[in-house]
Design goal:
The chain is mainly beta and 331 residues long. The protein has 1 helix and 25 strands. It has a 5-stranded mixed sheet with strand order 2-9-8-4-6, with no helix packed on it. The protein has a 4-stranded antiparallel sheet with strand order 1-3-7-5, with no helix packed on it. A 4-stranded antiparallel sheet has the order 10-12-15-14, with no helix packed on it. It is elongated and about 95 Å long.
Length: 331
Amino acid sequence: MFNKTLINIVSWGLFGLGVLFLFSSVQKYGHFSPLEDSLVCVPASVSLGIIASGKQAQTEMIISNQGSRSYEITKITPGCHCTSIDALKLPHTLKPGQDLIVPIVFSAMPPFRDQETSIFVDYVEIGNEQLKRTSFSIQAQVASQFVVVPEVCEIQIVKDSEFETTITIQNREQGVPVKVKSIVAFSPNIHAELLKTDASGGQQIRLYSLGMEAGEVRSYATVEMESSGSELVHILINGVVKGDIVAEPGVIDTQEVSNWPLTVVIKKSTVSSSILELQDIDSPIDIIQSIESVDGNIVLEIAQPHPPGTANRKSIRVMTSLGDLQIPILD
């Protein structure tokens, strides 16, 4: 009887010690099994924000041993040539509770977009040759060193009329003046010339035309900068040059129309004695309900495309005595 009672006391005592050890392990290490011990990067990632191309940003990776075992870091490998780390003496041992701070330099390089790279840390547990790996992630938005203001040159003119506007190229680096090597406008009717720099060092550029044909404008001007690598900056030129006739509305956006059928009026864009007459009309699908001549204008009644999407990115071509006109459809 005494032996049985002693065995029960010992058993319950061992059970209690086991529970106490398990509870203390969970409190200390945040997990149940010490087999899950590993090295971690704290934090696991960092965002460097916007960085101009050709510039560098410094950060650091903290490798932390938050477990109960000792580990040996054998190798640290940058994921791309845009990141570099200070020379470290490896292998490096991290005991429980120890950290290793690794300085990192990120070099911003084209293309201009959101970029992400990683640094890989290879390590082994002391006394165990099984290789493990953790990683540290770096995000950055790589942008041109220069900013174009405004971003897009918008054109809204009548054909054969003149226009001009001023664009400014600014340096993201405050106080550093912009220097331009050359500029080319990729449109036979659009010209570009350099003006003086403004008070902040920004380079002003005049874009102008002495007359353009009617139609949609999708072009750009390329500016070669006197910077490292002779970076190219593109100025987008978008818009419409109206001809002798215009359509109101000029675009059929089915998502914006609440009442169908839609009335589209084609009329002369300038005051003249010329007579506007319809010669022919070409529609991608059967959506034109009626065509009338009202007060010298051409009036179209447009039905809603059905099913939706059948006319998307198509256009109605109207041929008249004063020229042709395209009416785009967004469905």
